[in-house]
């Protein structure tokens, strides 16, 4: 199983409701028939929250997650405006969104 991490910065959101940690993975599972499943969440030292998802199809899975978050709001938030998405195929996370991301970021505490 590969892991997809959605790193959110609440300070950049219009409605930084903690329920996002439940609502985002629930919506993704509903839309994609559980081919992408919730795999927990964490709060990191940089004041971010990370939502973890698991999938057997990493490339298709991450593309689906990005597409859904581009087209839907969750609790009046445009999620991709405050998110960094990483993909871990087993050797550590690599940032896949935004495409022009420079630098490094942590997805685990």
Structure notes:
The protein has 109 residues and is α+β, with helices and mostly antiparallel strands. It has one domain (2-91): Alpha-Beta Plaits. The protein is 24% helix and 30% strand. It is built from 2 helices and 5 strands, in the order βαββαββ. It has helices at residues 20-31, 58-71, and strands at 2-8, 36-43, 49-55, 83-88, 93-97. It has a 5-stranded antiparallel sheet with strand order 2-3-1-4-5, with helices on one face. Strand 2 (36-43) and strand 3 (49-55) form a beta hairpin. The longest helix has 14 residues, at 58-71. The protein is globular, with a radius of gyration of 13 Å. The two termini are 20 Å apart.
Q: Bin the helical content.
A: 10-25%
Q: What is the domain total for the residues?
A: 1
Rough shape? globular
The mean pLDDT is 94
Query: Going across the major beta sheet, what is the strand order?
Result: 2-3-1-4-5
Radius of gyration: 13 Å
CATH architecture: 2-Layer Sandwich
Number of helices in the DSSP assignment: 2
The ordered string of helix (H) and strand (E) elements is EHEEHEE
Which spans have pLDDT < 50 for at least 5 consecutive residues? none
Total beta strands: 5
Secondary-structure blueprint:
Layout: E1 2-8, H1 20-31, E2 36-43, E3 49-55, H2 58-71, E4 83-88, E5 93-97
List keywords for this structure.
single chain; alpha+beta; Alpha-Beta Plaits; 5-stranded antiparallel beta sheet; 30% strand
